[in-house]
Write a structure and sequence with these properties.
Length: 120
């Protein structure tokens, strides 16, 4: 009987000690945090749009204009439709181009009257 009570009490003390150890507050620093900055984008995004005439910006299908941080990548593609893989910085309304390829034109679909879809 005495050993079971001693075991129960020691188990309660150990369990509460473990619980307190997990909830230890982090030490506060006395220095002001001046390095608060938005982290760089880690996922790339694929965007389609038209390169501006000067090659410095991209106008997307939704009529939003993005400034290109590395505009030399778009050199020679002024005024053309492109698909760009890029990192986006929405705070500065800026993109960093990773890769560029010409946009594929939408396929023209033609239907024939003799197709089975038009039969009833």
């Amino acid at each position: 009987m005495k050993s079971s009570i001693l075991t129960a009490v020691s188990l309660a003390v150990i369990t509460s000690g473990i619980a307190l150890a997990q909830d230890r507050p982090q030490p506060t620093s006395t220095k002001p945090d001046t390095t608060i900055a938005r982290p760089a984008a880690t996922k790339s995004l694929t965007v389609s749009g038209r390169v501006s005439s000067d090659g410095q910006s991209l106008v997307t299908d939704l009529d939003t204009e993005w400034t290109v941080s590395n505009a030399d990548v778009l050199k020679g593609r002024e005024g053309s439709l492109v698909t760009i893989k890029c990192y986006v910085d929405p705070d500065r309304n800026q993109i960093r181009v990773l890769s560029v390829r010409a946009a594929q034109p939408e396929p023209k679909i033609a239907a024939r009257q003799s197709d089975s879809a038009f039969r009833r």
